[in-house]
Specification:
Elements lengths: L4 H29 L3 H27 L10 H16 L3 H32 L3 H41 L1
Amino acid sequence: MERKLKDLFVDEIKDLYNAEKQITKALPQMAKKASSDQLKQAFEEHLKETENQIQRLEKVFKELDMAPRSKKCEGIEGIISEGKEMMKEIKDPSLLDAALISAAQKVEHYEIASYGTVRTYAEMLNLNKAAELLQETLDEESNANEKLTKLALNGINEEALHEVEEEKE
């Protein structure tokens, strides 16, 4: 059987559905480990957004006349696994906050690439409602990434640097 763009689209949506579910399990752990109140709040806010993103994906499945189904997302699983390793290995709170931002941005970049792709597929397949829903999520992921960058640049990375310098003295 020859696969078509719609089959690839459905496959990618299943992958994203699983990714978002994995992320909803990881974000509370990350928030718990964060020492920065702003970072903790960013993770908690993004958890709420992620729950809404899951609902949006369920609407996309409905547009396709399909029940929501997952396909294990190996990519996000690997990125989350890396983040968990960092959380185990790094004891310094400031350095851990910088590492948590790094891990979260890897997730965001994966999602930005994935949502951009499936939104484009939806447009090509004339699935306009699905394309709108996917664009909404893509915008949220981009905003989350920008927020993380601002947190990193507005103190968190600097604090991690100072912790390292103080250890040298």
